[in-house]
């Protein structure tokens, strides 16, 4: 299996505070990696280091062997090789759904209008939002907005898709439609790195799970490892708390397919 | 160095006179108008509404001239300063009414409902529940109006009131240095407004805690 | 009798002919305010401490100085440096700079309400900061700024009533002529008031509706 992303000893500070402390891991092609842990553990920050939105202070990230810290002025080009889906959607409110998905194709990849529209429509159909393509974000529900966010990332044909707690800001009954979309992507062997609490999702498709706390990787391994016999005490404590809170929302492969 | 500063400051005194009086008149009018607009019965609320929209929809300059030229034919012969104060007061009142309205609306109708259901009359509810909160909420925008009134009062120069701008014209007529004098005048306005703002901010900080 | 009516009518027409001048003053002044105010707002939100200090001081100054003082400063003060400044230009510069202080504030608030996430989303697609500003941040900020900006438009129209002090033949000056001609001190100004109201009132009404729409937009997104 080829390694697509290699995170090497990444450190990130905000002022004097160390938020990410020496994190390293590899992501293989076609796999889903789930990063989880308590809030403030540095997971979102780590994600933003990976796509160089906020480059790390120390260490680096390799994308298919290319050292991203050494890309200089081409960094934004390589950034487009990552797709990112945000907790708060971050859709462009002044653009329609179609334009939201098309803008990256037109402006960054410089694809001509007709071709871009075709690619965008494919992505929009994939997330089942075709009927809403002329609507504006303010007219959509949370789950719909997030699906558009996924389409926007997908349309760019990224090597890896980064998910930053994509369902955390959603009402419970809307989580299902987004998770279903993510499950479909995982089944199609898209390379994904997901920061999430959705353990059912992790159990279903993750090939690697990473538990982070206070900026460091505490433990990593397969889902079976975590759910049957985690090693560290911290991991055990966190997992038991999680299942208490989220027990009712465990949606393994019985995710609700909503329209 | 600047020997005419004394003359200018005499003008500033008149500016203060205008501003302070207009602010007071405006506060009373503004409060009355906003209460009438929100709680008043049909004819009264329309009148209040009309007053506010007419004043805010026309320039202060025009209002000033209408009052300055309009009062004498009615037999009301007053000094230019008086006319200016009336015009500024009426004008400020309409804008203050909007600030009070914003404050009252942000209090929400729930408070009035609660007061009425306890048994208070509308009048009691307004006086005891709505007004105290209104003053506190309207304070920032009201302070804004208070600080900037000196700037608005400069139009009084157009009807021969001897305020700051008028004085500066006299000074320039003598020393023929418009660039210098107008710059100084601008600075005087700047300092005056900044000082009033600062003082009101400090007062707000101090009394913020005593009200809640 | 009909000749009296004709006379009154011709006076009225004379006054109304000042409206295009007032409106063109408004357009120029507002544009100047926009061209100065928007960059300043961007500078203040995205610039360093020095930039922020400079812009906030500038805003302060432009909002505190009475427009009349600026008008006189430009009309009487600048010619001392050998540059001729016609009345129209002096008023346009004065009102434009005053407005730039207010517009800077308006756009600053609008830019700040766009939010960090939008910049993140744009850059994660591969856009440069400049592209993100141009295509994502500023377009949204302009939409957010619309209600306040409409109010600024209304204010500017009213402020042009000061132009007559330097001889610009807009509404107030013409009313003055009519007053001198008819010895009627009030009616000309009432007419002027009516004209201003007819122009300003719809704008403020529109601004109010936009404000309501905006509230729903912000809470929805």
Q: Your description of this structure?
A:
The complex is a heterotrimer of chains A (259), B (212) and C (221). Chain A has a 6-stranded mixed beta sheet with strand order 6-7-8-3-9-10, sandwiched between helices. Chain A has a domain at 1-47 and 57-81 and 193-252: P-loop containing nucleotide triphosphate hydrolases (Rossmann fold), CATH 3.40.50. Chain A has helices at 43-50, 75-79, 97-107, 113-126, 142-155, 172-187, 199-205, 223-228, 233-246, and strands at residues 3-14, 17-28, 32-36, 58-63, 66-67, 82-85, 160-164, 192-195, 208-213, 216-221. Chain A is an alpha/beta fold and 259 residues long. Chain B starts with a helix and ends with a helix. Chain B has helices at 5-39, 42-57, 60-70, 80-107, 109-118, 122-152, 164-175, 178-211. Chain B has a domain at 16-160: MetI-like fold, CATH 1.10.3720.10. The longest helix of chain B is centred in the first third of the chain and has 35 residues, at 5-39. Chain B is built from 8 helices and no strands. Chain B is an all-alpha fold. Chains in contact: A-C, B-C.
Largest sheet of chain A: 6 strands, mixed
- Let me know the number of strands of chain C: 0
Under CATH at level 1, the class of chain C stands as: Mainly Alpha
Structural class of chain C: mainly alpha
Query: How would you spell out the order of helices and strands of chain A?
Result: EEEHEEHEHHHEHEHEEHH
Which radius of gyration of chain C do the C-alpha atoms yield? 21 Å
Q: Which assembly state applies to the chains in this document?
A: heterotrimer
The overall pLDDT average of chain A reads: 89
* Sheet with most strands: strand arrangement of chain A: 6-7-8-3-9-10
* Low-pLDDT sequence parts of chain C: none
CATH superfamily of one domain in chain A: P-loop containing nucleotide triphosphate hydrolases
Helix vs. strand class of chain A: alpha/beta
The third-level CATH topology of chain C is MetI-like fold
Question: What is the name of the CATH architecture of one domain in chain A?
Answer: 3-Layer(aba) Sandwich
Spatial extent as radius of gyration of chain A: 18 Å
* Overall 3D shape of chain A: globular
CATH architecture field of chain C = Orthogonal Bundle
The number of helical runs of chain A is 9
């Amino acid at each position: 299996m080829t390694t697509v992303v290699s995170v090497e000893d990444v450190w990130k500070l905000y002022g004097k505070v160390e938020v990410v402390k020496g994190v390293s891991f590899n992501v293989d092609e076609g796999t889903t990696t789930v990063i989880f842990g308590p809030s403030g553990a540095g997971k979102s920050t780590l994600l933003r280091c990976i796509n160089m939105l906020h480059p790390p202070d120390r260490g680096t990230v390799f994308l298919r062997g290319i050292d991203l810290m050494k890309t200089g002025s081409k960094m934004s080009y390589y950034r487009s090789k990552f797709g990112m889906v945000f907790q708060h959607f971050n859709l462009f409110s002044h653009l329609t759904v179609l334009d939201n998905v098309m803008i990256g194709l037109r402006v960054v990849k410089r694809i001509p209008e007709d071709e871009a529209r075709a690619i965008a429509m494919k992505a929009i159909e994939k997330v089942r939002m075709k009927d809403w393509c002329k609507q504006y974000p303010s007219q959509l529900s949370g789950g719909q907005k997030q699906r558009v966010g996924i389409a926007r990332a997908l349309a760019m044909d990224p090597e890896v898709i980064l998910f930053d707690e994509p369902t955390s800001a959603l009402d419970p009954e809307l989580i299902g439609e987004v998770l279903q979309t993510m499950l479909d992507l995982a089944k199609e062997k898209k390379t994904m790195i997901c920061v999430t609490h959705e353990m059912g999702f992790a159990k279903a498709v993750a090939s690697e799970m990473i538990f982070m706390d206070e900026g460091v990787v505490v433990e990593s391994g397969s889902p079976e490892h975590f759910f049957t016999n985690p090693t560290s005490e911290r991991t055990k404590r966190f997992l038991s708390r999680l299942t208490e809170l989220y027990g009712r929302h465990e949606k393994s492969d019985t995710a609700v397919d909503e329209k | 160095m600047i020997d005419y500063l004394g003359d200018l400051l005499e003008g500033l005194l008149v500016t203060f006179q205008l501003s302070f009086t207009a602010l007071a008149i405006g506060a009373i009018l503004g409060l009355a108008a906003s209460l009438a607009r929100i709680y008043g019965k049909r004819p009264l609320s329309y009148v209040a509404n009309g007053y506010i929209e007419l004043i805010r929809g026309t320039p202060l300059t025009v209002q000033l001239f209408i009052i300055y030229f309009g009062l004498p034919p009615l037999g009301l012969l007053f000094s230019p300063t008086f006319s200016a104060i009336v015009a500024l007061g009426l004008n400020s009142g309409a804008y203050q009414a909007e600030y009070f309205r914003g404050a009252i609306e942000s209090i929400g109708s729930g408070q009035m409902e609660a007061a009425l259901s306890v048994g208070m009359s509308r009048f009691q509810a307004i006086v005891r529940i709505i007004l105290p909160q209104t003053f506190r909420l309207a304070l920032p925008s009201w302070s804004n109006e208070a600080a900037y009134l000196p700037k608005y009062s400069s139009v009084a120069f157009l009807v021969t009131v001897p305020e700051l701008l008028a004085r500066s014209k006299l000074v320039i007529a003598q020393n023929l240095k418009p660039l210098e004098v107008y710059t100084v005048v601008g600075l005087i306005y700047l300092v005056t407004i900044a000082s009033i703002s600062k003082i009101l901010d400090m007062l707000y900080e101090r009394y913020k805690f005593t009200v809640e | 009798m009909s000749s009296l009516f004709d006379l009154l009518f011709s006076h009225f027409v004379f006054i109304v002919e000042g409206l295009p001048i007032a409106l063109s003053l408004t357009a120029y002044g507002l544009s100047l305010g926009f061209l100065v105010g928007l960059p300043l707002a961007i500078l203040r939100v995205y610039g360093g401490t020095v930039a922020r200090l400079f812009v906030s001081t500038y805003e302060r100054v432009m909002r505190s100085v009475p427009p009349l003082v600026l008008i006189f400063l430009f009309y009487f003060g600048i010619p001392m440096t050998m540059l001729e400044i016609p009345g129209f230009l002096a008023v346009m510069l004065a009102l434009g700079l005053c407005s730039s202080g207010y517009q800077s504030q308006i756009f600053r608030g609008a830019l700040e309400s766009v939010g960090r996430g939008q910049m993140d989303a744009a850059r994660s697609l591969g856009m440069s900061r400049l592209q993100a500003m141009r295509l994502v941040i500023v377009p949204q900020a302009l939409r957010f700024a619309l209600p306040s900006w409409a109010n600024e438009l209304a204010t500017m129209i009213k402020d042009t009533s000061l132009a007559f002090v330097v001889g610009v033949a807009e509404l107030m000056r013409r009313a003055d002529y009519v007053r001198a001609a008819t010895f009627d001190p009030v009616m000309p100004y009432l007419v002027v008031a009516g004209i201003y109201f007819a122009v300003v009132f719809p704008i403020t009404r529109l601004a109010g509706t936009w404000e309501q729409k905006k509230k729903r937009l912000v809470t929805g997104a």
